[in-house]
Write a structure and sequence with these properties.
This protein folds into 2 domains: 86 residues, no CATH class; 143 residues, no CATH class. Helices cover 22% and strands 26% of the residues. It contains 5 helices and 12 strands. The strands form 4 sheets. A 5-stranded antiparallel β-sheet has the order 8-7-6-10-9. Strands 5-11-12 form a 3-stranded mixed β-sheet. The protein has a two-stranded antiparallel sheet with strand order 1-4.
Amino acid sequence: MSAAPPKPAPAGTAAIPPAGTKPAVHRPYMKTTSYETVSSGLISFLGALALLVMFLAVAWFSVQRPVMRDPVIIELVEDPGGSEDGAPDETLRVDAPLPEVADATPAEVEAEERQVEQSFESVLEMAEQAVAQTEAQFDSGVQNTGKPGSASGTGRRPLGRGNGKGGFPREDRWYVRFSTLGSIEEYAKQLDFFGIELGAVLNGKLTYISQLSNARPAVRTASGGKDETRLYFTWQGGNRKQADVQLFRKAGLDIGNAPILHFYPKKTEDLLATLEFRYKNRKASEIRRTFFEVQQSRAGYEFEVVRQTYLK
């Protein structure tokens, strides 16, 4: 005989488990929701993006050149001069046992003007004579206009060129080098940035070209260089001279083998003088050569002193 199945409990009453069985235990458990999955993914993505930005920023700053402040332009007054076969630490001196003065000269210096001294000598012959005879004598003496004194120095000729106290002028002392790696357009931008104007003598006239970055540079002529006071340079070597020839052709001029001149404005000349002095804080009279190079900067371009040689 088979056992009869248990009858279902009436509605509204709890089922009583059979004797000898344990009631089922429902244990709590945790589960990741879709919201938490999306949130954690976004946070991970943003963290990775922040780390990538920081890495790129560090890499970018590591390859940047330090920003140099523009130097304060000061006007350096120079008095170059001397003899090319002179000594580097010599200056002329006039020895004298007198106090030192700025413009000492030998004591006996003849003046160009002659002073006429008049003297009247009255000769009285007799008390009875009514007329006295006067004889004028003229003394053409030489007036001494020298300023006795002494000047510091060693008495030997200084090394240099010119009529000053010693050293070489800027046009003999400075050498500027432009990069040969860039294009002609880049080279023209460098010249325009520093206000440099090119010049050449054509048909007996001095021809200038400027605004070299334009499709056609500006051209002007002058009958001569008597009114030209700017510092200028000529080529001593390098490959950029052919670029100047092409810039003249760009302006519609064929200069052939005419010498090419670079005219520097006063502002750029003062900038070079300031950089030269601040390189080693040496006086211009002590410097034999200063070599400049054009470098690229955030502002555009800049000059940089790369080497100096000295007289002593």
